[in-house]
Design a protein that fits this description.
With 436 residues, the chain is α+β, with helices and mostly antiparallel strands. The protein has 2 domains: 336 residues, BirA Bifunctional Protein, domain 2 (2-Layer Sandwich), CATH 3.30.930; 87 residues, Anticodon-binding domain (Rossmann fold, 3-Layer(aba) Sandwich), CATH 3.40.50. Helices cover 32% and strands 28% of the residues. The protein is built from 13 helices and 23 strands. The strands form 6 sheets. Strands 3, 7, 8, 9, 10, 11, 12, 13 and 16 form a 9-stranded mixed β-sheet that branches. A 5-stranded mixed β-sheet has the order 20-19-21-22-23, with helices on both faces. The longest helix has 21 residues. The radius of gyration is 24 Å and the shape is globular. It binds '5'-O-(N-(L-prolyl)-sulfamoyl)adenosine. '5'-O-(N-(L-prolyl)-sulfamoyl)adenosine binds next to strand 8, strand 13, strand 16 and helix 9.
């Protein structure tokens, strides 16, 4: 993208309404704009980050065998009356009437809709287990939308739903999702810790929240430092082995970790003092096992091994995809701006032409732009060098390629790594190789 004609409206001033770093930086770097309370438009740079996060979430869901589908945002009220949640959900639910006066709603979650789809087509226990997911916009009319995309009213969620014949199977699905989540957050450069959680309006009796540590988080959290040392990358743990999943689950649940709602001072006292960690956390995911809470009232049954109909055991698994954009920034920024992890950065590099009109600068920039193409944001604006440096730091691309007249005359550029601030003068080939 050429910045001179890109829609990247950066702000010099700190917007008064933004209380936390990620909100301020998302506005200042031109990632999003609010269109009504808690509802945001994703501008080109922000959308690229959102898409990158979505891709990683999708790849890790696919890797444990979950199947992607896409359900609508608008749902009929009848389904929610069947499950009994239509009244319970209260004012958080946006209720709509269509022209025929039919009651509809903008989905805050999809347990009812997936149960309806499954009951129409799954007939036998032989077709189980199944895990289905989609990545779709949700609406919750939050009392206090705040902190930008962190607590929005319209937000993007990855929600998955598992169906198993019995409890033993449901536990395996639950553990698979937990594994997929730990891998997802690790790839996003985040340290996430699963913590036992309340189930709220989703219901059920087994639930974990995935919390990442950030000083501006909404919950106070307590955990054992042992979590900081575990590597979840693909390979070591097979999602197809129930034994591997059990070992992994035990590793995740034997060390102490709790939000203040579930904090137990007696158990905490047993954690060695040097391993106790406390801080604030952001909930980026939440998983639930709720058995037959939806299948039973909605009449979803399959033929069991003995031919008798049984209500399958289900669970649901959410990741706050749009919230993650804010969470990544909370975990990775400095006084000058965002520091994107390579895996989610909107562009791999910013290319700064310090002297437009200088033949060597223009030629080198065009060459690099031609070779890196879609991976680079070319700052070809008629601005002062200082403005370009400040904007590149603010937008937080992992690399900056700085092309100035002195270096250019000798065929050299300056390569800066945003995370460390380290600068080096290198040849064009070296710069290209390092960025790729
Ligand atoms: C699980 C999937 C559910 O809705 N049903 C389907 C279950 N869980 S949840 O905990 O309520 O939401 C899942 C994740 O969505 C994010 N989230 C939000 N993000 C931005 N703004 C909001 N208002 C918001 N509400 C929930 C969180 O990351 C949460 O863990």
């Amino acid at each position: 993208m050429r910045l001179s004609h890109g829609f990247v409206p950066t702000l010099k001033e700190t917007p008064a309404e933004a209380q936390i770093a990620s909100h301020r930086l998302m506005l200042r770097a031109g990632l999003v704009r609010q269109t009504s309370a808690g509802i945001y438009a994703w501008l080109p740079l922000g959308l690229r980050v959102l898409r990158n996060i979505e891709r990683i979430v999708r790849e890790e869901q696919d890797a444990v065998g979950a199947q992607e589908l896409l359900m609508p945002t608008i749902q009929p009220a009848e389904l929610w009356k069947e499950s009994g949640r239509y009244e319970d959900y209260g004012k958080e639910m946006l209720r709509i009437r269509d022209r025929h006066d039919r009651e509809m709603l903008y989905g805050p979650t999809n347990e009812e809709m997936i149960t309806d789809l499954l009951r129409q087509s799954l007939k036998s226990y032989r077709e189980l287990p199944q895990i289905l997911y989609h990545i779709q916009w949700k609406f919750r009319d939050e009392v206090r939308p705040r902190f930008g995309v962190m607590r929005g009213r319209e937000f993007l969620m990855k929600d998955a739903y598992s169906v198993d014949l019995d409890y033993a199977g449901a536990v395996v699905s639950y553990r698979k999702m937990m594994l997929a989540y730990m891998r997802t957050f690790q790839r996003l450069g985040l340290k996430a810790i699963p913590m036992v959680a309340d189930t709220g309006p989703i219901g059920g009796d087994l639930s974990h929240e995935f919390i990442i540590l950030a000083p501006t988080g909404e919950s106070q959290v307590y955990y054992d430092a042992a979590f900081e040392e575990i590597d979840y990358s693909s390979g070591a743990i097979s999602h197809e082995s129930a034994e591997d999943l059990q070992r992994f689950f035990e590793q995740m649940t034997t060390h102490y970790a709790a939000t203040d709602e579930k904090h137990d001072p007696n158990a905490w006292a047993e954690v060695a003092t040097e391993r106790r960690r406390e801080g604030r956390g952001i909930e980026v995911g939440h998983i639930f096992y709720f058995g037959t809470k939806y299948s039973a009232p909605m009449g979803f049954k399959v033929a069991g091994p003995d031919g008798k109909p049984v209500a399958p055991e289900m669970g649901s698994y959410g990741v706050g995809v749009s919230r993650l954009v804010g969470a990544v920034i909370e975990a990775s920024h400095d006084a000058d701006g965002i520091i994107w992890p390579d895996s989610v950065a909107p562009f791999k590099a910013a290319l700064l032409n310090l002297k437009r009109g200088d033949a060597a600068c223009d030629r080198i920039c065009e060459e690099i732009y031609g070779k890196l193409g879609g991976d680079v944001l070319y700052d070809d604006r008629e601005d002062r060098a200082g403005v370009k440096f400040a904007d590149a730091d603010l937008m937080g691309h992992p690399w900056q390629v700085v092309v100035g007249p002195r270096g250019a005359a000798a065929g050299k550029v300056e390569l800066k790594r945003r995370a460390t601030g380290q600068r080096e003068e290198v040849s064009i080939e070296d710069a290209l190789a390092r960025i790729a």
